[in-house]
Give the backbone structure.
Amino acid sequence: MLIGWRLLPHVPHDQTIIFALGEGAERVRQLEVQWRAEGQDHEGRLVLNFSTPPAGRVARQFRLAHGDYEFRVSARLRSGTERTEATRRVTLEGNTVTLRLEELTQ
């Protein structure tokens, strides 16, 4: 039983991440999200393409172990090849986490 308890944080869990893009969200054509767990070499990547303008908040569910992560989010805007990027460090514990990314759409 003790072994299972120690392994529990390393088991993937559903983690909800909200990408809060703010009032300029309608300008976003694509979000590229990359993440890496602290102390790990493995990275994950997700690309979200929006054929219609997204809402100010975009929610996605990830299957990740609890722990500290670095998320790099890049936005491509509808105005052309303009691309902006932001990095956030978060601790995932099974709760919903909001990444405030308004500067990507300004």
Summary: Residues 30 and 49 are 5 Å apart (CA to CA). Strands lie at 13-20, 28-37, 43-49, 57-64, 67-77, 83-92, 97-100. Residues 2-105 form a domain with the Immunoglobulin-like fold (CATH 2.60.40.2100).
